[in-house]
Design a protein that fits this description.
This protein is an alpha+beta fold. It has helices at residues 23-37, 50-63, 77-90, 97-108, 130-135, 183-191, 205-209, 224-232; strands at residues 40-45, 68-73, 112-117, 143-148, 152-154, 171-175, 195-199, 214-220, 236-238, 245-247. The longest helix is centred in the N-terminal third of the chain and has 15 residues, at 23-37. Residues 266-282 have a biased composition (Low complexity).
């Protein structure tokens, strides 16, 4: 969980893994969050254990709640933390739960996430050449890897080492691990980031990157007004199943796809809206 960028952004609640939290405690915590906030967005990395993911689905099923959205992300763990913070920033704006949940996919496109690694022999998320694999066996080797939005791998020691960066204003977050991160100062200059923040290395990072010797970084939009403007620029539709207002092509809460334009009524409401949970006619 990344620290909030200001005093307005609310904190997040961390849902513990099964080995550290009983099912009864997880159900009680989620019930409390629903009673307090109405809707809950659960953002998690796909690098978390399958037991943890199953626990999240179990909690949602036992509570029989359509107000819980489970949002799994293919971003590296620090990128997931950045995405969750952006959603927390947006939550203080005048947006509905459906729009907030659907904004996760939109914001993902604007996040640049990568890491400095000492080895790429176990890296599966990014294509690795045979030459890079061979270099992993050389003591002192270091690799700069961009996993999102476009996979890329360079050697920081090379004169032309450069990762493709954002073409818009960003802040960079760095999670220092067991690897020197001096080259990230060069990267921050190349990307013209407006600020660099420090964070703790996520516990899932070693599993995601295939090595415990790494330093992770992620850059994204930090201005809440810009995030809100991005969301406001996208056309909104009602979910055909649960009726929540949303953007994009799928509801984050019930996973129903948006109906094609020819199947929507002239007023903009979905033709199948009456068959959703609001009508309790499953």
């Amino acid at each position: 969980m990344l620290a909030p960028p200001d005093r307005i952004t609310p904190p997040a609640h961390v849902l513990g893994p099964p080995e550290r939290q009983s099912l009864d405690d997880a159900l009680s915590q989620m019930h409390f969050l629903l009673e307090q906030h109405g809707h809950v967005l659960v953002v998690h990395s796909r690098a978390v254990s399958q037991e943890h993911v199953r626990r999240l689905h179990t909690v949602r099923a036992v509570l029989e709640s359509d107000r819980i959205a489970l949002i799994g992300s293919d971003l590296p763990p620090l990128g997931v933390g950045l995405l969750a913070r952006q959603l927390r920033q947006l939550s203080v704006c005048d947006v509905s739960p459906g729009v907030l949940g659907a904004a996760a996919r939109l914001f993902t496109y604007y996040i640049h996430a990568g890491a400095l690694l000492n080895s790429v022999t176990r890296l599966d998320a990014v294509p690795v050449s045979l030459k890079a694999h061979a270099r992993s066996w050389v003591p002192g080797s270091q690799f700069a890897v961009l996993a999102h939005p476009t996979p890329q791998l360079v050697m920081p020691g090379d004169a032309d080492a450069r990762l493709s960066g954002p073409e818009f204003a960003t802040h960079m977050t760095v999670a220092q691990g067991q690897l020197a991160a001096d080259w990230l100062h060069t990267l921050a200059g190349q990307w013209a980031v407006q600020a660099v923040h420090q964070a703790e290395l996520p516990v899932e990072s070693a599993r995601w990157w295939g090595t415990g010797r790494l330093t992770e970084f992620a850059a994204g939009i930090a201005d809440t007004a810009v995030l809100a403007q991005l969301v406001a620029s996208v056309q909104r539709f009602p979910c055909p199943w649960c009726g929540l207002e949303l953007i994009g092509d799928r509801c984050a809460f019930c996973a129903a796809p948006v109906l094609p334009a020819e199947h929507r009524s002239p007023s903009g409401t979905a033709a199948a809206r009456g068959a959703g949970p609001s009508g309790r006619s499953r």
